Amino acid sequence: RQTGGLRKIRMATGTQGKSGSARVIYFLATEEIIYLVMAYPKSTKDSLTDAEKSDLKKLTKLLKDEV
């Protein structure tokens, strides 16, 4: 939401399950091109701030313009 088309998935790492482990933010530009934008452990960041969402939306626009 509010990121211009980025997607977030949960990934399990080590002994933790998906809900308490890592988050991966990516942009699916085409069927062949996927941009990994950011990955972080949930223990350090629960959700993106409004400022981060705004910055990511700008980045998404740049990526869309490149494709």
Automatic annotation (TrEMBL):
Organism phylogeny: Bacteria, Pseudomonadati, Pseudomonadota, Gammaproteobacteria, Enterobacterales
InterPro entries attached to this UniProt entry: HigB-2 (IPR009387)
Superkingdom of source: Bacteria
Protein's name according to its UniProt entry: Toxin-antitoxin system, toxin component, RelE family
Any Pfam family: RelE
